[in-house]
Design goal:
This protein has 14 helices and 12 strands. It is of the alpha/beta class. The strands form 3 sheets. Strands 3-2-1-4-7 form a 5-stranded mixed β-sheet, with helices on both faces. It has a 5-stranded mixed β-sheet with strand order 10-9-8-11-12, with helices on both faces. Strand 8 and strand 9 form a beta hairpin. The chain is globular and about 60 Å long. The mean pLDDT is 92. The structure holds zinc ion. The site of zinc ion has 7 residues, from loops.
Length: 336
């Protein structure tokens, strides 16, 4: 007899991952990672083509995954998507996937029809937030630092978003107003996500390496990858883990605007708990938190003492909060 399980999918800008969530034990198994068909891969295509290719690529991989794991029922499907999702399951924008295109896809409806199963689509940071909520006792803000930057505030047993799914878009907050500010995937300029995300840090490291070649040559980063144009975020993570001053200094320059955004969230709504997660931040680990705390301590947070500021951050230890959180949400969702 087949075991009851849900198919959970984390649809990110660079990769999407499929997994089997087993509700009886609240665990995931059989994670499969596939490259996302994003706008970088389909740059020449029209909008309709990108939408069709994106959906077909997703459907094909979902069907293959279900076939490969035929000992499970997959009674429900949950998609955690890298962009705002309305309560009806409609996606409009996902800059790391669709670039600067505005789209209008009812992901839930399309996938439900094609897969002949109950489908739920929510934002990926929301999915992770449901995982964190299972062990948090006070209101908190979850912030992801990966291909992009995103956040969600969990308050009074719900996630604060508006009726179109927006809320928690600090990645698209303009924090660099200079002429040469980096471009965001969404088409905007100087957005936090273009600066403090994994992609943002990589771009800044390449820029600084070109500006100050002697600093780059003398860095541990250059020992890991001698050609600056060939650098990846993996090299950056490794150099920071080896306490390379050149790379760590650039990281500090990117956590500075993130710390300011957090300072504003605190000032505006009084949230004192910040859970940092996402591939880039979690790979750097405690050094990422240290950088963020160092930057936020440059200014005072009204009403908080130094010790409270130092302890307001937690780095997620679970590597898959989004996939597990998607499963937890499917379990909670009635009539799904
Ligand atoms: Zn943006």
């Amino acid at each position: 007899m087949k075991e009851n399980a849900y198919l959970v999918i984390d649809l990110g800008g660079t990769y999407f991952r499929l997994a089997t969530y087993i509700p009886s034990v609240q665990k995931i198994t059989a994670i499969k990672k596939i490259e996302t068909l994003n706008y970088l891969a389909t740059r020449q295509d029209s909008q309709n083509n990108l939408e069709d290719k994106f959906i077909n690529h997703l459907l094909l991989n979902m069907e293959t995954y279900i076939e490969e794991n035929s000992s499970f029922t997959f009674s429900k499907i949950g998609i955690a998507f890298a962009g705002p999702v309305s309560p009806q399951g409609v996606i409009h924008r996902a800059p790391t996937i669709t670039g600067n295109l505005n789209i209008d896809l009812n992901l839930k409806k399309i996938l439900k029809k094609k897969m002949q199963r109950d489908v739920v689509a929510i934002n990926d940071v929301s999915a992770a937030t449901w995982y964190f909520a299972s062990s948090e006792n006070e209101p908190f803000c979850a912030i992801t630092v990966s291909s992009g930057i995103g956040n969600k505030v969990f308050y009074n047993n719900s996630i604060l978003i508006n009726d179109t799914g927006y809320g928690g878009e600090i990645g698209h907050y303009t924090c660099d107003h200079s002429e040469n500010a980096p471009l965001c995937d969404c088409g905007g300029k100087g957005h936090l996500g273009a600066i403090a995300s994994g992609r943002g840090v990589l771009a800044k490291v390449k820029l600084e390496s070109a500006k100050s070649p002697e600093k780059f040559i003398n860095s541990k980063l250059s020992a890991l990858c001698p050609k600056a144009q060939d650098l990846t975020t993996h090299h950056i993570v490794q150099a920071i883990l080896e306490d390379d001053p050149f790379t760590t200094d650039i990281l500090d320059q990117t956590t500075a605007p993130l710390s300011e955004a957090i300072g504003l969230i605190y000032a505006a709504i009084g949230i004192r708990r910040y859970i940092i997660f996402g591939g880039f931040a979690q790979a750097i680990g405690t050094r990422y938190l240290s950088s963020l705390i160092k930057q936020i301590k440059r200014f005072a947070l009204f009403g908080l003492n130094e010790n409270q500021v130092e302890t307001m951050f937690t780095l997620a230890s679970e590597k898959e909060p989004c996939l597990i959180g998607m499963g937890i949400f499917l379990d909670r969702a009635e009539g799904v």
